[in-house]
Amino acid sequence: MKRRRFLAGLAALPGAALAQVDPLDPLVWVVTNGAQVKQGKVTVELPQLADNGNSVPIKITVDSPMTEADHVKSIHLYSEKNPVRNMANFYLGPRAGKAEINSRVRLAGSQKVTAVAKLSDGSFWYDTASIVVTLSACLDES
Amino acid sequence: MAARIQLPASAKRGEIVEVKVLIQHPMETGYRHDDVGHLIKRNVINVLSCRYNGVEVFRADLSSGIAANPYVQFYTVADKSGELEFYWIDDEGMQGSEKQPIQVT
Amino acid sequence: MSRALALAAAVLASSAFAQQRAIPLSELKSGSAFLGADLRSLQNDDFANPGLLWVERGEKLWSEPAGKTKQSCASCHQDAKASMRGVAASYPKVDARGKLMNLEGRINACRVERQGAEPFKYESEELLAITAYVARQSKGIPIAASIDGLAKAHFEAGEAAYRLRRGQMNLSCAHCHEANWGKRLLSETVSQGQPNGYPVYRMEWQTLGSLERRLRACLSGIRAEMLPYGSPEYLDLELYLAWRARGLPVETPGVRR
């Protein structure tokens, strides 16, 4: 079965959650223009269980020397379930020294969070992390 | 807009320094309702930028997916003595800025 | 002789009542003990604790002149780090005129009487900031509110309020926070309902809020009537809560769910 049709088939299943980054996802396309996104170099760290979906600590690192010749240009963060799926974009460059971002995000329920990194050589890399969220942001209102 | 910045007061040239920013902002998602059931309008900081002696060394597009009172930590290489200036703007056009000096030896 | 004995017995009984804790000191736990590891470390982070944004704002407001007299807090109280040390840990307290006040009430009394300014509303940015700043100066200091003299009647009213069943769910504070603390309620663990972190940055509010805001949220939760901010019933309850928490160090600004 051709990979694209396999992915399309998976997408058709109710509640299908793709572990891979779908290169045809319009949000990802905006960054990659359809180029392949390889798994690796990027690490997304999230707690296994969120204390509270309104503020979850996240750490994204990309294995890169961050030199003029070889560095991370940008990191794009995507949520699987949030109403706004492109959570944030971070723009780095050789002056960063280190490709590591720490922040706190909102998560609307248990889901996967994916970070796609664009490198200076035009390649794209990603990682995905899963998290269980009992108190959802955006959806659980009080 | 109140904000806190943390970065070392001094560093050696070429040293990678850790920069932390915490900004007071509700990052209103646009999905919450007020006491009478009306939707509270979305208003988030959508751009955060850091300039080191006038050159942008870090920028972030933020959304409602970033927690209220946003916290961002990144790194930058200590280049020359001077100032790191942080600038942000929200959906309503409110701007905030904060600066912090750095001594590079 | 028997009358003296009866009187002695009554005195002993009342002082024993005043001494007795429902939760022994060794088991007293702050709300932070019921947090997950991440939120607890966020509270202890001297940079990233979001409540510190208000504490810093409070520090600025402390030196800002206000009202008809154009006095700032600093005009009378100078450096808060010295003058306000231990103050929040002694509240609520009865002032010289016999009025029970919490910290918010005391700040507003100064605003109106000393500065000739309008009182701040509950949950306003300014009142939260100054309250958080003042309470922060008591960080680490055990709560020690007095229930003697004029405070005694308020303390007894507060305890009665604590044990009163109310609302559609017909529950009192004691049912959850005394009889069932430590047990699970849906996905959360019931805390002891201690006040030592207030004002707190509550994740549910995504902002800093006062103890009264939290009490109102509890009342709403058991489907009881929420009294207006500043009601004497809240003040009596706050005094009881402070007595109940005596020995617990102030943690302001706390981070809570």
Structural domain count of chain C? 1
Question: Can you tell me the CATH topology of chain C?
Answer: Cytochrome Bc1 Complex, Chain D, domain 2
Q: With helices defined by DSSP (H or I, 4 residues minimum), what is the helix count of chain A? A: 2
The end-to-end span of chain A amounts to 47 Å
What's the topology here?
The complex is a heterotrimer of chains A (142), B (105) and C (257).
Chain A: H1 3-12, H2 26-32, E1 37-39, E2 42-45, E3 49-50, E4 56-62, E5 72-79, E6 86-91, E7 100-105, E8 111-119, E9 124-133
Parallel strand pairs in A: 1-9, 3-9
Antiparallel strand pairs in A: 2-4, 4-7, 5-6, 5-8, 8-9
Chain B: E1 3-6, E2 10-11, E3 16-23, E4 45-52, E5 55-62, E6 71-77, E7 82-90, E8 95-104
Parallel strand pairs in B: 2-8
Antiparallel strand pairs in B: 1-3, 3-6, 4-5, 4-7, 7-8
Chain C: H1 2-19, H2 37-43, H3 51-62, H4 73-77, H5 80-83, E1 93-94, E2 100-101, H6 103-113, H7 125-136, H8 151-163, H9 173-177, E3 184-185, E4 188-189, E5 200-202, E6 207-209, H10 211-221, H11 232-244, E7 254-256
Parallel strand pairs in C: 5-7
Antiparallel strand pairs in C: 1-2, 3-4, 5-6
List its salient traits:
heterotrimer; B: 105 residues; mainly beta; Immunoglobulin-like; 5-stranded mixed beta sheet; 3-stranded antiparallel beta sheet; elongated; C: 257 residues; mainly alpha; Cytochrome Bc1 Complex, Chain D, domain 2; 3-stranded mixed beta sheet
Kindly describe this structure:
Chain A has 142 residues and is mostly beta strands. Chain A has a single domain (18-133), classed as Sandwich (Immunoglobulin-like). Helix content of chain A is 12%, strand content 39%. In chain A, a hairpin with a 4-residue loop joins strand 8 (111-119) and strand 9 (124-133). The longest helix of chain A has 10 residues, at 3-12. Mean pLDDT of chain A is 86; it is low at 1-18. Chain B has 105 residues and is an all-beta fold. Chain C has a single domain, classed as Cytochrome c-like domain (Cytochrome Bc1 Complex, Chain D, domain 2, Orthogonal Bundle), CATH 1.10.760. Chain C has a 3-stranded mixed β-sheet. A two-stranded antiparallel ribbon of chain C has the order 1-2. Classes of the chains: A mainly beta (142), B mainly beta (105), C mainly alpha (257). The A-B interface holds A 54-56, 77, 79, 82-84, 86-93, 95-98, 100-106, 137-139, 141 and B 16-17, 27, 29, 31-33, 52, 55, 57-68, 70-77, 79.
